[in-house]
Amino acid sequence: MSFFDTEGLEQHFTAVLWHCLLAVLQPSGRTEPGYCSSRDGTGMARQRDDTQKMQWQPLNLTASCPAHSNISACGPLGFMYLNLIVQLYSGSKDARIQEHLHRCPHEEDSDEEYDFIIVGAGAAGCVIANRLSAFEKWKVLVLEAGMEQPDVSLVPGLYSTMQGSNVDWGYTTMPDGRSCLERPGQACSWPRGKMMGGSTSINSYAYIRGNKLDYDKWAEMGNDGWSYKE
């Protein structure tokens, strides 16, 4: 006789494991995806209200906690703890470093042309920009809707505070009647990063090695240096 209905637990209390970091990114000296313009023609544009002052804002606990809740996170100590985290980690060291550099002060129209436009400065987008910008004659533009990577993302133990925040796109899956049955609308939360680094910036530094077949397939397609062995 089993004390636990494992099938019921799987169906009701389900969570989505978002994709993990493919590789540790070390941008070359020529790729500078934080600037408005750089020596190699790589550009960065963002949709934002205030370039200098965007900060991480956590999930609104007041709106999320039910009335008279006994959940510890919804109590006074929970609010005090979250407020402390905001005070310590809501900023971005990248933004502070680059405040003294030439940045786009506001949105403006431009007639400048680019050879490649990459949408999203996540792990894939940054790698592609890095590779393409190796050719000096190519001009590359990277578009990112989010902010610089906030300091809170540098603390693995605080990864849960980024879910539902302003650096999470807030996607949910379609209800299928077999999973996340305890969640509102029976839809699983699907965290997607809205910042520099994309979803790899909110995965608490989880790492998974890429499949050998994928790398070798890329090399077979003519991408020298991309094989698993290389």
From TrEMBL:
Gene3D superfamilies: FAD/NAD(P)-binding domain, Glucose Oxidase, domain 3. Coiled coil: none annotated. Residues 114-230 form the Glucose-methanol-choline oxidoreductase N-terminal domain. Residues 30-50 are annotated as: Disordered. InterPro entries: FAD/NAD-bd_sf (IPR036188), GMC_OxRdtase (IPR012132), GMC_OxRdtase_N (IPR000172). GO terms for molecular function: flavin adenine dinucleotide binding; oxidoreductase activity, acting on CH-OH group of donors. Belongs to the GMC oxidoreductase family. This is Glucose-methanol-choline oxidoreductase N-terminal domain-containing protein. The lineage of its organism: Eukaryota, Metazoa, Ecdysozoa, Arthropoda, Hexapoda.
